[in-house]
Amino acid sequence: MTRTEFLKEQTVSGKNKVCRRLIPEVTVANEKCSLPERKAKALSWIFENMPVYIGEKELIVGTRTFYEANPGNEDGHDVMEYSLATKIPYLNEEELARFGVDKSYMNKTHYTPDFGIILKKGIDGVLREVEERKKDASLHAVNINFLNSVTVAYKGLKTLILRYEDEARRLADNAEGDEKNELLEVANVCRKISSEPPQTFREAIQLLWFSHLGTIIESFCFINYGRLDVILNSFLKDTPREEAQQLVECFLLKMYDQADLNTSYLNKYSGQLVVTLGGVLENGENAVNEVTMMFLNAAGKIRLPEPEFNLRISKNNPPEFLDKAAELTISGCNHVSYYNDDMFVASLHNAGVPIELARNYGFDLCQDINIPGKGDFWLGGSLGLAAFLMEMLKEKRDFDSFAELLAEFKRRVAAEVNRRLKIYNLGQARIEHFAKGNTEVYFDGVKNHGWGVQAGAIAPLPFLSALFHCTIEKALDVTLHPYMIQEKGFFFGSSVETINSLAAIKKIVFEEKLYTLDEVYAACESDFAGESGLLLKNLLWNAPKWGNDDDYVDSIAKELLEFCLAECKKHKTHFGGQILGGIHQPHPVPSGAKLMATPEGRNARAPIAVTLTPESGTMKNGPTAALKSAAKIDPMLVQWNYCVMVNYFASVFKGNNGKEIFKTLLREYFAMGGLQHQPNVMDAAEMKKAQLEPEKYKDLIVRLWGVSAHFVDLPKELQDEMIARFS
I want to staple 714 with a disulfide (CB 3.0 to 4.6 A). Which of 146, 276, 471, 718 is the partner? Predict the structure, then answer.
């Protein structure tokens, strides 16, 4: 058994569970220092006290070992609290009185830091920069408190790393031969990176992992990796390539070492973090390198659903990049997605993002685009279009034509986007008072004027902050918006249900005049009850549907979605950034469970489609038609979020040079202006067998939306929904 095979077995079975402990009842609320420093002390306490664990044959070490109990859990899984550091109270009585509420649990996530910062500076470099910045006499209390909190957090990280050095040396004392030498090397690496910047590939990966560990202890999940191939390539140097490949495989396995935890309705660990690979460098040249290919090779060997791999496909990339990616996809690695790099860079730049920064985009959770360490596009606002359409139809149905209905819907969408962004910008304006040191103005607003408590004031993130550019320079926590780029995203959800509903209304009500809009809405309210309701449901369901390259419905989609996205361009953030447009719909089962029946013939509480993916059972003309429909949306209006997931029967790619078929399909779709593709390659029959004999299908990976999972780990309702997509 190879090292990678052994470590995968250890990872998937959760062997590191032996080192986990319930987080003790500890408080730092009474310490005589500022709120941000106490938040950092809570994090540092975890670094200094959580059990350290080095598993057999590990080359990259470090794992979370404190967790929170879940007494009602019957499946034997531990539960990892989303924000572990907030389990240690850090707000004192005076602060609780001023805020009027304990929202220390607030934790805005979806960040993508730049881990290249700490690899360049080293921990001591961060600490020195903070001390130098504190010499500025013009800094106010908020600035000083932030800088002090960074010092506390990174001294805590240093302690954690040195504890791992001690543990490695302790284990080495009782080991012999290769095992002893490997443990001593772990110890030496930890000693080095506890203070100095890394010099070798192994040191860089180890420090990057400890840094990431810090972010997810402070803020749990949804803190993503960014462009790891670009970040790590400069450290590859003369490292033997076989050794480097082994280190990358160990790194990927470490990213999945909480696999046995149950943290969501997925019945599994749901960190679902993203690695961005490929694309171009800031100067526009090809970014694919040896490390890129090492990650793809490791993904194919390990076959775990996390991390996700979001691949930026540029005309400047070498052919072996797409070749290897396509090989993974047709083999069933359904955690690989593809992005039209040239289009996304152009669209971001067209929206006002400087070209060098636009070329450096990476990914947040799902399909959310971010500029690692230089921006935070999540989240200016969102609007679920299907529920909004049903709200309109509830109060107004006296339209003389479909054009009149669509015009009214667009008018209401524009007004609602404006309303929601005004509310968001009010929140930004309030936090600006705090960031400028006008804390009394802020607290007066909270106490006397109904201002909501902002995460930036009550739940700072000092550890994460140092992994962003401008935070130490401006002496502000990342939650106080010190970014280099002030753009924010706004996304439109349940788009497919809305498009299909509008097409069905146009066909059945206004053209064929088989039913009135009153009758359609009443049927939706009753969830198509009775024989007459079922008859109407069937008529609506058989109306033209999105994803079939049918201009009847696609023209409605184009008009509505381009209008929605263009509305975003009319708005700025409080800090002057552009609102970026996106189309997004995750969580098809729970999101559908909240939505009433809709006029395309969908029943109440039924799952909804993922973003621009055809609804289950409606893709009549095959994957090519679905991609053609998506490519009709103007790509220059999308900068932030977009997804087309197509389910392919695995048999399509078996034989007949399936890899070349997929590559041709993707290239032609991107040439038409298509932006993104998430393929799912599998067979319904195989999934049904996996339900009956899960032990035989442990490596079966499925793409759910922007996240992937082992099929056998999912609850039955999600398994059934996935099977239905192939029906």
Answer: 718
Q: Are 406 and 560 contacting, i.e. CB atoms less than 8 angstroms apart?
A: yes
Tracing tokens 């999945």 back to the chain, one arrives at: 256
Closest CA to 47 of 161, 164, 156, 195: 156
Q: Alpha-carbon distance 714 to 640, whole Å?
A: 29
Question: What length does the chain have?
Answer: 727
Spatial CA neighbour of 583 closest among 670, 492, 671: 492
How many CA atoms lie less than 13 Å away from 57 in the CB half-sphere? 16
- Chain position carrying tokens 């035989």: 696
Q: How far apart are CA 473 and CA 12, in angstroms?
A: 42
Q: Give 428-431's long-range contacts (Cβ < 8 A, gap of 24+).
A: 428/481, 428/573, 428/574, 428/575, 429/574, 430/454, 431/456, 431/457, 431/479, 431/480, 431/481
CA distance 463 to 471: 11
Instruction: Tell me if residue 375 falls in helix, strand or coil.
Output: coil
Summarize pLDDT for 168-224 with one digit per residue, the tens.
Answer: 999 999 999 999 999 999 999 999 999 999 999 999 999 999 999 999 899 866 789
Q: Measure the CA–CA gap between 704 and 711, rounded to whole angstroms.
A: 10
Torsion of CA 292, 296, 297, 303, to 10 degrees: 150
Query: Residue 505 contacts by C-beta under 8 Å, 6 or more apart in sequence?
Result: 402, 405, 517, 520, 599
Which among 376, 374, 490 is positioned nearest to 108, based on CA atoms?
376
pLDDT tens for each residue of 420-458: 999 999 999 999 999 999 999 999 999 999 999 999 999
Which 3 state secondary structure label does DSSP give 199? coil
Nearest to 153 by CA among 224, 67, 62, 218: 218
DSSP per-residue string spanning 245-300 = HHHHHHHHHHTTTTTT---STTSS-----EEEEESB-TTSSB---HHHHHHHHHHH
